[in-house]
Amino acid sequence: MALAPARVEERLRERFTGTSIERQTGEAVRDHTLVVPADRLVEMAAFLRDEPELRFAMLSWVGGVDLLPREPRFEVIYHLLSLEHTCRITLKVRVHEAEPHVPTVIGVWPTANWHERETYDFYGIVFDGHPDLTRILLPDDWVGWPLRKDSPLGYQEVAFTHNTPGRMLPKPDLTVLKPKKVRYRAH
Amino acid sequence: MTLNMGPQHPSTHGVLRVVLELDGETVVKAKPIIGYLHTGMEKQAEYKTYTQSIPQTDRMDYLAPMSNNLALCLAAEKLLGIAAPARAQAIRVLLTELTRISAHCVWLGTHALDIGAMTVFFYCFREREKVLSIYEHVCGARMTASYFRVGGLSADIPAGFLDRCQTFVDEMPAHADEYERLLSKNPIWLARTRGVAPLSAADAVALGATGPILRGSGVRWDLRKNEPYCDYDQYDFEVPTGEHGDAYDRYRVRVQEIRQATRIADQAIQKLRAMGERGDYRLRDFKYVVPPKEEVKTSMEALIHHFKIVAHGFFPPVGEAYQAIEAPKGELGFYFVSDGTPRPWRMKVRSPSFVNLQTLPTMIQGRLVADVITAIGSLDIVLGEIDR
């Protein structure tokens, strides 16, 4: 029988009494999501993996979200999967911009290695204790964190004979590339 | 000695670079380096509506465009809290299973080619060509399908389409026999794959491997069975698994999957015949789905809905959703964060190849350098999906 995510939350609260575990609620939060503090994350991860009733042996993915202008600005998301009991649960850690640090979970799930590198690459969130925290998808000499909301969607103008060299910009002109403010009206 | 393999190496299936530290012919350490094909799809998606991101997904795993479309549409549907009609789901199942056959055919052909068996390549591409023609028949494109939409499909299936699929499905098992006749007992194939690039079940789970890699290591996990989507619980099929987790087991699993996919596709065709050659192909909820063209031409209401959705897209509720499907390569999932506007605040792609490639160093550590080719081949990676 499949394990209910509510039961996972119950077990977690039982084991970590006194720690703030917040169930994320909202109009359309479709997955069972728990917001947990960064300093207890690794302990919780190990508990979720090893507890016979839970057995979240697989970390499906890790990702970041930039919530600018909200504070804390970043969220790191851990999507866990229990193969034994067919259950998914999402853990979230909130991260402040001033101190974007989260402990690594490689010790619990080795697969976190590349996912954490990707999150670092896109958002500049530092995973403390990661053995090889370098850029993974972008070039090593890239400046900035492309998936942050204040990083514009840049482009380089295509080179044609009539627009080189005068109109060719070596770097995107950031002033004109700010995302357009569009106001939507609901139906 | 440090040896640089790739990024322009024919057997790395794209632009994968592996830095190998060798001791004689033995691999001491391997480090895959990726990112040569990075196009920032997740960033671009934040500037597009959900529907506009569908063509992007064709270019991720370009050997399985329909599976990618399906994953995005299902994630968006989960966010919206809607579901496509049963007939549309059956068409989706039919097409994604044909996609699985075609993706596995390309894998088998190129993998065999890497190891030195030329013939299989031509046989496999013959069948893949037939699937591409089926794509062309249904949506006009051979590789960049973009056929699925949030809430259903972009158009109904054309006349004669089911007969064409039926012909293909009927002849496919014989072709799978052909592949197996060429390889399964071939002494060279056995010597190159059996016991090569092994991955234990514990390692596979710890490293997050999914799809045929995980099943090849003996873990019976298939999202179509374990977390059914698109009414997969109504289809009768088996989940093949391996025992030793070596390259040969992965080969066995994938060939069996071709057979199982054929079975599922056949059942989907029968289901569609029972439902009618023409019928519901998308939801009639015009806040999220474009009305049929005939109605747009005749009804003012439909025209307004069409205009609203085309001009700025649908408005999902504020929230987030993750939905995964069993793509040919493993768990392919999309995660959307919505702020209530027609563009996703964040789109995250959990691509199977990206995670599966992480198992490469474990597979080849302490093995011969010639086996690196077999290991990369047996992983079935597509760099478009890894780098996104």
From TrEMBL, chain A:
SUPFAM superfamilies: Nqo5-like. Coiled coil: none annotated. It catalyses: a quinone + NADH + 5 H(+)(in) = a quinol + NAD(+) + 4 H(+)(out). One of its GO terms (molecular function) is NADH dehydrogenase (quinone) (non-electrogenic) activity. The keyword NAD applies. Residues 35-155 form the NADH:ubiquinone oxidoreductase 30kDa subunit domain. InterPro entries: NADH_DH_suC (IPR010218), NADH_quin_OxRdtase_su_C/D-like (IPR037232), NADH_UbQ_OxRdtase_30kDa_su (IPR001268). Keywords: Cell membrane, Membrane, NAD, Quinone, Translocase, Transport, Ubiquinone. GO terms for cellular component: plasma membrane. It is a peripheral membrane protein. It is found in: Cell membrane. Its EC number is 7.1.1.-. NDH-1 is composed of 14 different subunits. Subunits NuoB, C, D, E, F, and G constitute the peripheral sector of the complex. NDH-1 shuttles electrons from NADH, via FMN and iron-sulfur (Fe-S) centers, to quinones in the respiratory chain. The immediate electron acceptor for the enzyme in this species is believed to be ubiquinone. Couples the redox reaction to proton translocation (for every two electrons transferred, four hydrogen ions are translocated across the cytoplasmic membrane), and thus conserves the redox energy in a proton gradient. Belongs to the complex I 30 kDa subunit family. This is NADH-quinone oxidoreductase subunit C. It comes from Eiseniibacteriota bacterium. The lineage of its organism: Bacteria, Candidatus Eiseniibacteriota.
